[in-house]
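#onboarding

Welcome to the new folks! Below is a worked example of what a typical request in this channel looks like: someone posts a single protein sequence, and someone else replies with the predicted structure as tokens. Don't worry about understanding the tokens yet, we'll cover that in week two.

Example request:
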Amino acid sequence: MRLTIIITILFIVTKQIIGVDDDDGERSKLDIENANVMNCNVSDDLKKEIQSYRDITKKIIYELTDGKWKGFVYNEISKFVDRFGFRMAGTQNLENSIDYMLDKLNRFDLDGVKGENVTIPHWVRGSESAFLITPRRQKLAILGLGYSVGTPPGGILAEAIVVNSFEELDQIGPKVSGKIVVFNQTYLSYPKTVKYRSLAASKAVKYGAVATLIRSITPYSLYTPHTGMQDYQPGVPKIPAAAITVEDAHMLARMQARGSKLTIKLEMGAKLLPDSQSRNVIADITGNTFPDKSVVVSGHIDSWDVGQGALDDAGGAFLSWGALAVLKKLNLRPKRTLRSILWTAEEEGLIGAEAYFKRHQSENDKLTLLMESDEGTFTPLGLEFRGSNDAACILQEILKLLKPINATQLKRGDSVGSDISIWDKTDVPTAALLNKNEKYFWYHHTDADTMDALNSDDLDKCTAVWATVSYIVADLSIDLPRK
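Example response:
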């Protein structure tokens, strides 16, 4: 009994220390990760130095959430998105939007504004349609997947068969020959489930399938198909691949379970055109002491050709250049250079980031921290970080300054972000915006990615996180320690 009481008391005390909230399982998980991040040994002098930025942090937060800059990022995004809409790689519209941003960044008097050329692929969707023919006629909403080939002229009319996993496909193997394979996989999480979008066509064609339709990678659907990249594996024939809605995947599975024969007519005009030229957009606040060292904030400027690319990723791109614009207007110039990068052709496979990595690889030793926002700009919680334990401890001290907007959490990961994941092969510290993005994949790669997916107050707070963290890291007396 005594032991039980002691354990109970220790459990309660532990909950109080790490901030576990019984009513919020997700927050509890994050706080536990936060508490278990590391055994920190940040010196008192460094803690005092970080605390000396308290007034600057308050100023940044005030200006963005209550002052002159309140609503700035949202308004800038709305002007951009309403003018250009989606910005597909290879299109003139993307290049026009890049010209617009280069002019905008110069107008805000940022340093070294430029576009760095990148050769990018140019895939076009073309017209596309799918109809269920038997057991009854119904139009199916589809979105072709990136790099998919088109159907032959006149389309494909074939029997369809539904499978729930790659394992089930392997079990029935030759039975799918000559058929359209419909994947009705269960959504577990985006990282765990996206393999079906990426690999379904290559898996199915090995057994003779003529096309694949993949249940959209999303936890929630209002009859919205989700597009995205798919990858043909080396040495296998290429067959058409498209996403269908969760609702239609369920319907087809139910029909098959009742013994109905499924027949589908699929037409896709997708094709790959010759490569084209695009640009990464770069703008700086040059450091006043160590200008050759840098802290980078980033997001991607391109989008898929559905929706408006507001959430993915105008939000991340605009808070990245918006943070620099606000800091510049507040006359905050750190010791190291602050750099904003708007990546091009992220959706087609991190093409812009890969080009930047190759071009600037010799600068990695001078890259203090590389940040990216590309998983939503909902209510900010803090940062997701990949790097050394000592660097994580320093960032945790910095995040404490963001308590007024409740963005103090630090989550560790072996890989964070999308474009910046290219730097996983190095010891450059990387960080992504940690935000309350449970609904991000509701909108992701769909026609629903519009301005209505964004919230102005959330964007203000996200920009405050971006501006505060990037400025302090760029201005500290020490570099973030590496592994």
